[in-house]
Amino acid sequence: MTRRGFTLVELLAATALAVMLAAGALRVVASIRADVAAQRDRSLTDGTASDQLVDLIRRDLTQARSFTQAGGKVVLIGFGGVNRADFDGAKSKDAASHQPVKIEYFVKQLGEVNWLVRRQTDLNVLNNRNAWTELARANVRSIEVRPLKLGTADQGTRTSLAIKDDAPPDQVRLVIASDDQNTMNIDTVMTLR
Are residue 76 and residue 156 in the same domain, yes or no? Predict the structure, then answer.
């Protein structure tokens, strides 16, 4: 007597096993998605993450010798780069390289999310092998840095400034606009010198 198929018990067992494997795989995928969303939300709404970003931008602006802003991009040239090997994600001030660098802040869309991006390029290297980029903050619509003079009102639209030793800007106004209602906007005045 030859057996031509599976019994009903074998089919039910195989189906139950397949359902359990599929449920396990879906649980893993859902867990990963939830972890990524929680991490993104934590970095967007956590005051310390915003404070760390503001501190990093303040440090970059303080070390800058020239500053331009055009087309939604802030470009800083100076000596305040961050060593990538020492960069610990906490934006430690001890990680400074003190080498000539070009630092750019701009908004870039990746997938469905607009990110504030920080790109650093070493200027004393002939190629861009030492250039590196990091995602600084999600759900950002724009970044703007406006030079101010100490004790004056916001000067508004001045977007290019060569910083000289005899006339540095005393203050700048940093505005990072969010494109999400759950994300805090940053609007702060920084004293640089």
Answer: yes
